[in-house]
Amino acid sequence: MHEPEHLVIRPPSEARSLLVRVVRGCNWNRCRFCGIYDLFGTVYSTRSLDEVLSDIDSLKAMYGDIFRTAFIGDANPLDLDTEFLVSVLKHLRENFPGVERVTSYARASSLQKKSVEDLRAIHEAGLDRVHVGLESGSNRVLKFQMKGTSQKQLIDAGKKTIEAGMELSYYFLSGLGGRDLWEEHATESSKVFTEVKPHFMRVRRLFIHPMSKLMEKVRSGEFLEQTPEGTVLELRLLLENIDAEGSTFTCDHANNFLPVHGTLNADKDKMLKMIDSFLALPQHQRMAHYDSIPSVI
Ligand code: SF4
Question: Which of 24, 30, 34, 112 to mutate to test the pocket of ligand 1 (most atoms within 8 A of CB)?
């Protein structure tokens, strides 16, 4: 039997999902803070439709229809042709009728390039949700970190995705503005969240890998790493300025200092109070807490 290829990474929420590799690596691969595919030695390359379809056949033969969710990777399948994606998704759905949700990573720039009709066709073929690295809504932060997107693109792409019927999960990377741009990083990101009202706003804390391009900027003094307390203040400022009825706001990763979670706008005060209660703790308790949280990707 043909051995299916494996993904490099997937979101934590897809831990039990069927994982299908439709493309290798990231077609952008320039974000200063990332380097994940370089670390794993994965060079970007596309796969043929036959290869991907036969991976799906093999996965079916190996596991049967046991999965309830599926994830297609690696970093940005939405950059592929719409027809290709539609064929893959239809084959996946036909072979795994028990799958109730299919998700993917996507870059905002790739989503923006597609028409709403194309995105709708992809959704109707079976893609329910996209996980998109917003990282920041600040143009200055995006530019410094070489994200290759702008605030306008994040807003346009987000609105289009939702209009096409897909669920949108936007990831905010706390600490990405460093000590110089943290306020702008928070408030400009709040603007994007308020404009787009994505279904999920997920918070991750910046982890600077020693081999990343961002670490070079830390060493040269061009990027001042955010402090733990600054990260919490930034989270508060971000949340305080979001007005997005119905969106889920969640710090659902082990590297967050506080497990803030709730539905906006109903739970906003409760979430802010949780942050304020933490900030009101004696300094030695706050410092001990920061030390107890792992710095991981
Ligand atoms: S953060 Fe995403 S888009 Fe940027 S290089 Fe990494 S995988 Fe690619």
Answer: 34
Of all protein residues, whose CA lies closest to atom 1 belonging to ligand 1?
Answer: 34
Q: What is the pLDDT of residues 74-83, one digit of tens each?
A: 999 999 999 9
Ligand 1 contact via 108 beta carbon (within 6 Å): no
Relative to beta strand 45-46, strand 23-24 is antiparallel
**Integer Cα distance of 26 and 28 in angstroms:** 5
- For the Cβ of 203 lying below 6 angstroms from any atom of ligand 1, the answer is no
Alpha-carbon span 144 to 138, nearest angstrom: 10
pLDDT at 297: 65
Q: How many angstroms separate the alpha carbon of residue 254 from the centre of ligand 1?
A: 20
Q: Is the peptide bond prior to 265 cis by the omega test (within 30 degrees of 0)?
A: yes
Span 137-167, pLDDT tens digits: 999 999 999 999 999 999 999 999 999 999 9
Euclidean distance between CA atoms 175 and 21, whole angstroms: 31
Alpha-carbon distances of 234 from 168, 185, 203, 204, 240, rounded to whole Å: 23, 8, 11, 12, 10
Q: Which residues face 170 on adjacent strands?
A: 132, 201
Class of domain 12-292 (CATH, top level): alpha beta
Q: What's this model's pTM, rounded to 2 decimal places?
A: 0.95
Closest by CA position to 33, among listed 197, 194, 201, 226? 226
